[in-house]
Design a protein that fits this description.
Pfam families (chains A, B): MTTB
Radius of gyration of chain A: 25 Å
CATH architecture of chain A: Alpha-Beta Barrel
Family (chains A, B): Belongs to the trimethylamine methyltransferase family.
Protein name (chains A, B): Methyltransferase
Number of domains of chain A: 1
EC number (chains A, B): 2.1.1.-
Oligomer: homodimer
Organism (chains A, B): Roseobacter litoralis (strain ATCC 49566 / DSM 6996 / JCM 21268 / NBRC 15278 / OCh 149)
Largest interface: A-B, 123 and 123 residues
CATH topology of chain A: TIM Barrel
CATH class of chain A: Alpha Beta
Largest sheet of chain A: 7 strands, mixed
Number of strands of chain A: 19
Shape of chain A: globular
Chain lengths: 513, 513
């Protein structure tokens, strides 16, 4: 039999009616992690690491550079000597008791809201890069255009459930940059936005823009996070001024801090996975405690980003087995605390090549099997974060989409096993192209790739022998050309732009450090 | 502190003695799978699939093209109508009872022996390709030179624990080809070799060459597998002449058959994962039963290689979410039977690009989380098996090596957590390069990559801006230039060559079909 022999299909097509098989419908917006959590350490070892983290905070302490934060810790019961803050385990226990175990981030549309808790799964593209790169225009310092374009690309793919500070728009003056990045995230996407913690004035500007543009009251804004920031400690054991200020500002205003010590084993962290994660855990607990001292119940996410350096050169490496194991260990500690947690993939490669693909995917699997709630740098991140690649965001999305497909699972009922509709319908050495089961599902059963190409060598050669990167260039160019964006309320847009004009005239808000 | 301030290291170096930190020592030869098995279906669904496989064999039957095999099935209790063999569940149960659950493959050296059972983990490079390709010489029909070179590459990496029929040496006449491939595997490597099932005369030649070259008796050879073959059914439900003959010959002589229906969902198998794996399971059970009817206890490995086709073009796809889920389902059925099982990774890409890397790694993770014992096509496989790539074998080995590192696990004892030797030894915002813990481990803690490059963009550019493929070219060229091979007993080599000369003069042994 051939496809043409299938009368059912011919019949429906003859009348110009709908096709026999329904179109494919996927939902990549609300994912649950289906992968069994993997443990690298025993529960006793995890308990010993937690205990050592507590001892580290009690005996070695954190250096906190912001006097206001030191004062919050002191009032909360910490022993303070100059900038050194010694945090007791009772304070940590209290913070872990009040930190929410489940957080809903409010996006521009309700079906873009994100749930952050152990078991949920949220992807975010590569973030924080000073440079952008693509095959058409080369590698260059990040610009406003790059930030806007990257926002459009991130908006396009449902598998990115939150926005990231993708690329630094270096051509926008620093005292006005937060206006630009916030306006861009409000007008080109309706996903959960990111706000940098670069001092109180910028944070307050961003909160006001968000609140008014989203049309929520002060109370509504404070009641649920409408944005998030990333807080990196200065490992080892230092919390600098803008990061401490960010923890205070975001907690006080009910907005989400994702606390992430960025620790490279052998450099700013111990060379061992166990040691590095013990340090990272201690620093995360200190920062989480600060948020809960400011406002018990403030939304905060436990975070880890631990990989290793190459001990010959000191250069950072990503997607290594050590990175993978660090993600597993961090996941075990996150489950120990019960908090949602973020981890990270990423690549050290300088171009989007095989190394970049393998590193990023290896990093992803460490996060997935570590049970991460949020996986940052899940796509597009090159050079250990010094650039984001337009092609790599496309090729990595292919992997993320397939992981999202795995989240949906598969059925094995009578229809799927298909003794009557498939197995007994085809003779030995025959084919299943026209089996009833196939005809009912040929449009819907399989994921449709966005950049992978299954043509054979001859056809592929005739079509120009383009590798995945070259095909990815066309994919991102088409997305940018389509320029799909959410509808925006004209009045709110005017309010936003007036606010930015007023605050620009007032001198904006330089970043603090 | 800097590295130079470490007195311990200076002291040992001053005397010209060994370095303070030991060299890295890894063992990739005997791996256990550390990844928690993932289930895509419930145990009830798996039982229903097994039940439907039994029904398929009982009611729909297998078409068996070799009369001798039909007769074996008939004598074993099967109902036979012409070439159709209807196999009862009692026969399947009996076969699963006698098939060994643990198999040791005997290689050329005892430390190359492989253990095949649920829980052990063995990798094999891409196999069966008619073409070879590399950046230096382009894509060409496979040749004797390619087969030899690929054998040397496979021999070089411990993470390949068994040999594969990598590439077809098309310039060797088919009636002599088995002499060439066996001699090559005996002289260029001491790993567990592969023998094609292309008729009894070839198999007997190969068994004799192996037995004599390994220096074992007839009884010793029959008592343990010294080689293996791959048996592909002709899905759906057909067992052709050379494959049926191979099952009989290998079982009768105590050699290992790896039974693998190669089923593409939507083409030669049902479009659903559940249907395709039910068919694959039925065919594997039929072939396994044949081996046990020939010789109860004969070594046989359960196998699956199920991916999907692109329903728009009919082209095979690999490393997809459907492929991943099929591996999980097959793993569940393998555990249901208790047999060691093989799965497969692979790529549909036409070049070793980002697609090729992502597909292969995605396929690998499906196998790993499916608990596969043997993962075939784990490296180097392009175009859905129509070519093997010299560069891809190198870039994939990087991933396999890191997976082998994950098999080794990590410790989290007092030394690794390192409160005294690391955490308390570094001031806030300091670095750990010279911490006592680092100094004791800097040579040994991290995997050293073979092709991944961690240089920053500037350094990488100065060095020629080579991507991973270009660097991989140098890696394989260096391995071939070094030409490391196991020592070979001169007398046995002479015996081998005399045998080949005699059998060649007698006309060799044409393949049967």
């Amino acid at each position: 039999m051939t496809l043409r022999e299938n009368t059912g299909r011919r019949r429906t097509r003859r009348g110009g009616g709908p096709k026999a098989a329904p179109e494919r419908n996927v939902n990549y917006r609300n994912l649950r992690n289906p992968f069994p959590p993997m443990e690298v350490f025993s529960s006793d070892q995890i308990a010993a690491m937690h205990e050592t983290s507590l001892r580290t905070l009690e005996e070695l302490g954190m250096k906190v550079l912001l006097p206001e934060a030191v004062e919050v810790f002191r009032k909360g019961g910490a022993r303070v000597v100059d900038q050194m803050v010694y945090i007791g385990r009772d304070m940590i226990d209290a913070a872990l008791a009040t930190a929410p175990k489940s957080i809903t981030g409010r996006a521009g549309a309700r079906d873009r809201d994100i749930l952050l808790e152990l078991g949920s799964l949220v992807f975010q593209p590569g973030a924080g890069a000073p440079h952008a790169t693509d095959l058409a225009r080369g590698r260059r310092p990040g610009s406003a255009r790059d930030f806007r374009e990257y926002t459009t690309l991130c908006h396009h793919f449902d598998v990115f459930q939150m926005m990231s500070p993708s690329v630094e728009p270096q051509d926008v003056p620093t005292h006005l940059r937060h206006f630009f990045t916030t306006e861009t995230q409000l007008t080109l996407t309706d996903k959960f936005p990111f706000v940098f913690a670069r001092g109180t004035p910028q944070a307050m500007d961003c909160f006001e823009m968000l609140r008014d543009f989203r049309g929520v009251t002060d109370d509504g804004f404070a009641a649920a996070p409408h944005c998030y920031t990333i807080i990196n400690t200065n490992s080892p054991r230092t919390l600098d001024i803008p990061m401490a200020q960010g923890l205070i500002d975001f907690a006080r205003n009910g907005q989400l801090s994702i606390v992430t010590p960025f620790t490279l084993m052998g450099a700013m962290a111990p060379i061992t996975v166990a040691g590095a994660i013990t340090l990272s855990h201690a620093e995360a607990l200190a920062a989480i405690t600060l948020t809960q001292l400011v406002k018990p119940g403030a939304p905060v996410c436990y975070g880890t980003f631990t990989s290793n350096v190459d001990m010959k050169s000191g250069a950072p490496a990503f997607g290594t087995s050590a990175h993978f194991q660090a993600s597993l260990a961090a996941g075990q500690l996150a489950r120990f605390t019960g908090l949602p947690w973020r981890s990270a993939a990423g690549s050290a490669s300088n171009v989007n090549d095989v190394q970049a693909a393998n590193e990023n995917q290896m990093g992803l699997w460490g996060c997935l099997m570590g049970g991460a709630t949020v996986i940052i740098h899940a796509a597009g991140w090159l050079e250990g974060g010094l650039s984001v690649s337009y092609e790599k965001i496309i090729t990595d999305v292919e992997v993320l989409n397939m992981i999202a497909e795995l989240c949906a699972g598969k059925q094995a009922g009578v229809d799927e096993i298909g003794f009557d509709t498939a197995l007994s319908a085809v003779e030995p050495s025959g084919h299943f192209f026209a089996a009833p089961q196939t005809m009912a599902r040929y449009n819907t059963e399989f994921y449709q790739p966005i950049v992978h190409d299954y043509a054979n060598f001859g056809t592929w050669t005739e079509r120009g022998a383009q590798d995945a990167n070259q095909r990815a260039t066309k994919v991102w160019q088409d997305i940018l050309a389509a320029d799909a964006r959410p509808s925006v309320d004209g009045e709110r847009l005017e309010t936003l732009q007036n606010f930015i004009a007023k605050r620009t005239a007032e001198g904006g808000a330089p970043p603090e450090s």
